[in-house]
Amino acid sequence: MPEIPSARVVPRRASLDAVLDYAWGTGVFTAGDAMPAVGLTRSTTIDALDDLVGRGLLRELPNARAVGDYSKGRPARRFELRADGAVVVGLDAGRVHITATVADLRGESLSREHIVRDEQHLSADGRRADVASAVDAALAAAGRRRQDVLALCVGVPAPVDAEGVSPPHREGFWRLTNPDLGEMFAAWAPLVRVENDASLAAVAEGSVGIARGVANYVTLLAGERLGAGVVADGRLLRGAHGGIAEMVAFDHVRGVDGAWGLGYRAAQWAREGVASGAIGAQHPLAVAGVEHIDGRMVLELAAAGDPDASAIVERVGAMLARVAGVFGSLFDPELIVVSGAISAGIGGVLEAARHRLAADLDLPAPRLAASSLGADIVARGAVAGAVDLARAGALDLSLRRAAAG
User: Fold this and answer.
1) CA 197/CA 199 separation, integer angstroms
2) Which residues contact residue 129 at a Cβ distance below 8 angstroms, ignoring those fewer than 6 apart?
3) How many Cα atoms sit within 13 Å of 374 on the Cβ side?
4) Which residues pair with 114 in a beta bridge?
5) Is 63 exposed, middle or buried (0-12, 13-18, 19+ CB in 10 A)?
6) 3-state SS class at 194
7) Which residue in 155, 74, 71 sits closest to 378, CA to CA?
8) If we measure between CA atoms, which residue out of 148, 182, 146, 177 comes closest to residue 164?
9) What are phi and psi of 273, to 5 degrees?
10) Average per-residue pLDDT in the chain?
């Protein structure tokens, strides 16, 4: 357990930072609660609390005597973060599905808007209009306006650099899916962050998922396409152009042969089995028709004991073991989390992959686990990212606004 620093005199800005950070991470508290946690003197702590209340970042509540918690001596003053003083927006801007979530400063959801767009007619202007429309609709549903937004975080299916910009792509897709969205939102939102969607899935796993407390892990989006977010030594990795774990590498890995996800491969191999006759005409997959076969159907049949579906699951597990082996060799993670909608029925695939993974590695094999966050993991990661952005930048904004007048 880290040692609590002794009380000391610190610069005013540092004391404000320390007390605000403490307030953001706790519920209702008193100055006496905060003092040992932040390592400040009583007078410095109280001065910081009063300043933060004046800036609208904290709220002072009725004192302990007024709520029946104190009967003798001077009643303790009580405070809490003004979680409703502003809102954050988390945006999962997928190729077709766009989900905007409005939340308070603690990340509690207030509203959500989901829209579906036609990928075949995607344009940069249309893309910007779609994501802005989703955000405005979610704000309206929460009874809020753009002026109420403190921070906004958006996830896109493309590499994103530290400035929120995606690099050029041979087919132009990355710039089309992220047509300067950071610049567009920065025109009205004080704090804006654009990230790769799989990176935000990693943020979600580390904030509210199975990777809490884990310093080295990979989150693998694995439904239709593969995507990965990498955390090493507690830091989300990005790279010079946002290309850490860019999945084109798997075009060159035997046994994977592309960036197609686990659900896609399960459905593909089932359709091929039906088309070739390897899966009989009376089999549920054949009866459903190749156009209706999806990964979930294959996983559910395998879980029920169907031998043909189980054989496909074994094959998908072998593919996952190869993917996990590459990440294990490159980044030495403790944990690899399979996330997204596919994660709910992935147990058989994980079991098959575990049996093969150790043989592919000289390093200790990472633990393989299924996410519990479901299909909206990127949206949840975007909200967590927006809260982190607000938490890091709220005081700076307040100080700049005060200096401006």
Assistant:
1) 5
2) none
3) 3
4) 99
5) middle
6) strand
7) 155
8) 182
9) -65, -40
10) 91
Given a contact cutoff of 8 angstroms between Cβ atoms, the answer to whether 214 and 234 are in contact is no
* Side-chain half-sphere CA neighbours of 394 within 13 A: 31
The three-state secondary structure class of 143 is coil
The structure's pTM equals 0.89
Provide CB contacts within 8 A for 204, sequence distance 6+. 219, 339, 373, 377, 378, 380, 381, 384
Note the pLDDT tens digit of each residue in 239-270: 999 999 889 899 999 989 999 999 999 999 99
Q: For 384, what's the count of Cα atoms within 13 Å in the CB-facing half-sphere? A: 19
SS3 244: coil
DSSP structure class, residue 7: P
Q: Which two tokens stand for residue 143?
A: 């009874």
Q: What angle do CA 236, 241, 246 make, to 5 degrees?
A: 70
* Best CA proximity match to 246, nearest among 166, 127, 363, 131: 166
Provide the CA 154 distance to its chain's centre, in angstroms: 10
Q: Which residues contact 379 (CB under 8 A, 6 or more apart)?
A: 90, 91, 92, 99, 101, 112, 155
The candidate with the shortest Cα–Cα distance to 182, out of 201, 196, 203, 168, is 196
Direct distance between the N- and C-terminal alpha carbons of the chain, in angstroms, rounded to an integer: 43
Q: Give me the mean pLDDT over the 369-376 stretch.
A: 94
Q: What DSSP string runs through 19-86?
A: HHHHHHTSSSEEHHHHHHHHTB-HHHHHHHHHHHHHTTSEEEEPPTTTTTS--SSSPPPEEEE-TTSS
pLDDT of 195-217, one tens digit each?
999 999 999 999 999 999 999 99
Residue spans of beta strands (DSSP E) within 121-196: 149-156, 191-196
Structure tokens at 58: 């904290």
Residue 51 pLDDT more than 60?
yes
In this prediction, residue 358 has a pLDDT band, given cuts at 50, 70 and 90, of: confident
